[in-house]
Amino acid sequence: MDKLKLEDFIEYKFLSGIEISPDGLHTGFVLHQADLEENKYLSNIYVCDNKHEKSIQLTSFGDERGFIWKDSENIVFPAIRDEKDKKRKEDGEEFTSFYKINIRGGEAKKDFEIPLNVNTYKFLDENKIILSATFDPNYKNTKDLGIKEKEDYLNKRKEDKDYEVLDEIPYWSNGIGFTNKKRNRLYLYNLEDKSFKTLTDEYTDVGVFKLNKEKDKMIFIASSYMDKMQVKSDIYSYDIKEDILKKISHRKDFSYSFADFIGHSIVFAGHDMKSHGLNQNPEIYAMDMEEKVEKISPPDFDFSLWSSVGSDCRYGQTKSMRVENGKLYFTTTNGYNSYINSIDLDGNMEVLSESKGSVDGFDVKEDLIQFIGLRGLHLQELYKLEGGKEKQLSHFNDWVLKEKRLSLPEHLSFENDDIDIDGWVIKPIDFKKGEKYPAILNIHGGPKTVFGEIFYHEMQYWANEGYLVFFCNPRGSDGKGNHFADIRGKYGTIDYDDIMKFTDIVLEKYPSIDKDNVGVTGGSYGGFMTNWIIGHTDRFKAAASQRSISNWISFFGTSDIGYFFSDDQQATTPWTDPDKLWFHSPMKYADKVTTPTLFIHSEEDYRCWTPEGLQMFSSLKYHGVDARLVMFREENHELSRSGKPKHRIRRLEEIRDWFESYLK
Q: Using CA atoms, how far apart are residues 130 and 133, in angstroms rounded to an integer?
C-alpha cells in the first residue's frame, strides 16, 4: 500500500444533494471531484437504479447541481450552457436557465428560462413554479426593456461595480459577498405567459419554504428587517389559491430553523435562545389547523438537528430534515456521531440508524431510506438503511482504503471537573514502539461542532508524514447537550483547561511523543484557540493559526456575524463591558507569545475577516517572534473544505513546511 499524499484529495469523490424520485425507483445525487488543471470542482448528476442498486452518470458538463425531479422520469436543473447565455451573464443580465434530462438517457435540453436569479424552486403544476430568488433594489429587471435601453442599463450596472453602498448590517456574508439590501424573495412564476408575481416584500428574507401535498398552501421561514437584521425569525403561511399571506409565528423572539406540513398540521423546529443563547439546541413542535402549538420532542431531548461531525472531505449540500409517512425525519449529533431519527405528531421518536460516523444528508420515500455517509475511514458513499441495517450502494471511494496507508484513531476519554471529554490519537503509519515522534494538536472550529472517528484528510496526511496527531472535543463542543456546549462568556477558560489537560494526558500515555517537538493548529474557533494558547503557554514548539479571531472588539464590527455572535457568545458588547471582550481576546496576550506562528487567512473570509490575522501577525512581529502570514485571494472561510484545489494544496504545503522547519 502507498503512503497518503497531500494531493490525493484531488481523486476523492464527494456526494451531495440526494433526492429520491417520486415513484421511489431511482435516486439522484450530485458527484463532485476536484479538477486541478482548471482549479475548480466538477459537479455532475448521477442516478441510482434502486432495484439493481447501480449508479450511472447522467450529466457530464461538470457544472450541474441544484436539480429536482419534475416527475419520476425527468430531472430539471439550472445551467448556463449556451454561448449566448454565457455572454448575457457576463454582461450582467439577470436570469436563470433550466435544462431537462430524461433518466433513460439522451442529452439535456434547455426547458425554460426565468428572468430572476433563482435560488430554490418547486413545481406547482406543468406551468407554475414557486421559487425564491435574490432581489437587489439597486438593480431593475431587464425583461421588459428595449434593446437600447437594456444596453444602456447594463453598461451603467458595470460602472456601479466600482462602488459599494452600505446602510444596514450585516452588509456582507461569507461565501456570498456584499449583501446590503439584498433579500431572498418568493415569487410565483407562470411558464406559459412568462409572468411572475412577487409574494414577499423587499425587506423580507426568506429561508426554508415548503408546499403541502395538495400544492395549494405553502409555509416558509423568514426574517424582515431594515437597518439591522435580528437573530429571530418568523413562520408564514400562504394560501396559493386565495392569495392570502399570513404570519403564524407562535411567539416573539424565537428562532425557527425548519417547518413543513404533516397532513393538515405543521411541524417545525426552533428555540427561544433564552437558556443557552444562539447555539441552544432546538425543540420540535406541532401546530394544528387552529394554530394551536404543542411541543412534541421528548422532555430529555437535547440535540442539534444536523451533523456537526467535522471532516475536510465534503462538498455540496444535502438536506438533513424530511417529512414522509406522517413523520418528521431528521439528523442529530449524539456524542461524536450523527444519526437519522423520526418523530410523529404524538411525539413518538425513534433512532433509525445505529452505525458510528456521520450522516451527511438523506432522503425518505415510503419505506425507503437512503443517505450519504462517512463510515470509519471510508469516504462518502451512498447507503441504504433497512431495518436498522446499512447497505453500501456506491463504491466511488473504496480505492482509498485499499490503496492508501491510513491510521485508525485511538479513542482516549478523560474527566475534567467531573465532566467526560472525548479525545483521540492518530499514530504515525510507520509507528514503532520506542522511537520518538513529533506531534500535532488539532483543534476544531465552531465551537459547537465535534471531531469523530471519520476520515480527515489533513490529519491522515500528517500521520503519513511521521506525526502523531491528537485532538479532542472540549467543553463548547456539540453532541453532549446544551450545558456542555454553553461556553458563553467563558472562551479561553474552561475550554482551554480541557485542551491542556488532554495534552497532558496524551503526553503521559504516549511516551513515544517527543515532548520538545509538539505543534498546535486549528481553524475558526480552533484558530482563536491557537491564538489563545500561544499567549498562555510556551509548551508548543510551533503553531499554525487558521481563519482565526484575535480581537473580539474588532470582530464585533467586521464579521458578517460579529454584532450578534460577539454579544451572544461573550455576553457583552464593546460599550457594555469592553474590558471583558479584551480579556477574552488573544491580542491582549500577544506580548507574552514566544511560539513561532504561521497565520493563514482568506481575503474574502467575511466570517473571520483578514484583520483578525493581521493584528495577531503584526503583534508577534512587533515583539520579535518568528511569524508568517499567508493570504489567499478569491477564497473565504471554507478554504480548507471547499477552496480551489490548488489553494487547498498550497495551504497544506504551508502548514507542512512550517511544522517541518520547527518540529523535525
A: 10
